[in-house]
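dumping this here so i dont lose it
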């Protein structure tokens, strides 16, 4: 099965080379699209250099460099759009972070779930996953945010805010055709709402989530505040908008 893994990247120069090498070594059918928002640490330059020097990177790694930082959700959408329009015939799509909080070895498990008949699979931290290295405050906020999203949208989805996800071409086509209203990490909840409203089957499996070891988180208080407000808008549209 030919799989495209979309990795949104901003200031991930410390991680991107190791992440790509790890994924490429796992399976010859794994292909990668890195979407970089012109990171000031020259992430795109690192990727271009590796593509020039390494045959496997030339064949299996694609770089999209956007002019400015414009949110994780839009970066993933751009990667998916490239994947469904370039004629490569990908049979499954993955989105994951570049900081090794999502274990590349778990890709096979998510893809396997897609093969079992679901449209979307989520690598979930809740209720049975393991979280390593998060401070207490981060755990409380994450639990609260997910409980709020589950209460407002649909309880059966255990983890609305984790970006380790697997999609069939049908699901990616639906997301690409749907309008994105929110930027940043809240798009994770918005996109799930769109898929659920379309009647697509969503499943999940527990993951081992490790707080980033290198680099700095791109999430800030302003984005957190905006996300909390946006979840109520998403929930209203989920239940009442036509």
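and the seq i came up w/
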């Amino acid at each position: 099965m030919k799989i495209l893994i979309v990795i949104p990247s901003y200031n991930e120069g410390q991680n991107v080379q190791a992440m790509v090498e790890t994924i490429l070594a796992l399976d010859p059918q794994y292909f990668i699209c890195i979407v970089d928002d012109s990171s000031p640490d020259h992430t795109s330059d690192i990727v271009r250099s590796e593509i020039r020097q390494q045959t496997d990177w030339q064949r299996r790694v694609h770089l999209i460099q956007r002019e400015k930082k414009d949110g994780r959700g839009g970066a993933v959408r751009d990667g998916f759009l490239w994947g469904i329009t370039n004629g490569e015939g990908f049979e499954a799509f993955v989105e994951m972070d570049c900081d090794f909080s999502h274990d590349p070895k778990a890709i096979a498990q998510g893809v396997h779930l897609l093969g079992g008949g679901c449209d979307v699979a989520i690598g979930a931290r809740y209720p049975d996953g393991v979280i390593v290295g998060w401070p207490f405050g981060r755990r409380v906020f994450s639990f609260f945010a997910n409980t709020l999203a589950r209460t407002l949208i649909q309880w059966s989805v255990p983890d609305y805010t984790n970006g380790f996800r697997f999609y069939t071409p049908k699901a990616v086509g639906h997301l690409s055709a749907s309008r994105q209203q929110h930027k940043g990490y809240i798009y994770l909840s918005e996109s799930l709402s769109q898929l659920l409203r379309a009647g697509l089957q969503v499943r999940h499996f527990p993951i081992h989530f490790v707080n980033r070891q290198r680099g700095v988180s791109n999430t800030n208080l302003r984005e957190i505040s905006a996300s909390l407000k946006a979840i109520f808008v998403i929930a209203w549209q989920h239940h009442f908008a036509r």
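The beta strands are 3-9, 30-36, 61-65, 92-95, 120-124, 130-132, 165-167, 202-206, 208-210.
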